[in-house]
Design goal:
The chain is 61% helix and 5% strand. By secondary structure, it is mainly alpha-helical.
Amino acid sequence: STMLLCWIHVDRHWSSKLLPLVSRLPDQNVNRSPPEFTGVRIDLPSKPLLQSPPMLDAKVWWPLFPLLLLIVIVCLTWALVVAVRGGHDPRTRWLQVGAFTCYLLAAVSAVASERGAVSANLHRPFSLATQLCLLLALIHHWRSPHRALRWLNAAAWAGILADTALHVLMVRR
């Protein structure tokens, strides 16, 4: 929040009439009528005093991207381990393997596109395939007793969507 400071300048005519009244002793015959008020001028600063960076500046939000990547990788890895070691049906295992593989390909292609090695749009089909696998896994586990897989897949999908939303907001700024 920017602090707003105001400077109030009292007209010199008013202050010159007030000071002699204050400095006189009470036993002198002083006209006690109020001084003539000629006005108050308020000057506001033209520039904000506290310069803050823009809200959607990449320097402010950049630490969130590795954190979101970590959240998604941890959730997908954990869900893959639960699906494979838990002896779940083959559809569950294939959906988790597909989501994990597609996300790894999306992450690798996104890092490569940041370095200029490949097109910036290469990671998008992998990301969409990951989201499709996660959606199908959520539908598959919706009424099943495997709550852990539901929560892990939902958290991974939320991390992907948060990353996408943050990218969109920063680009449209």
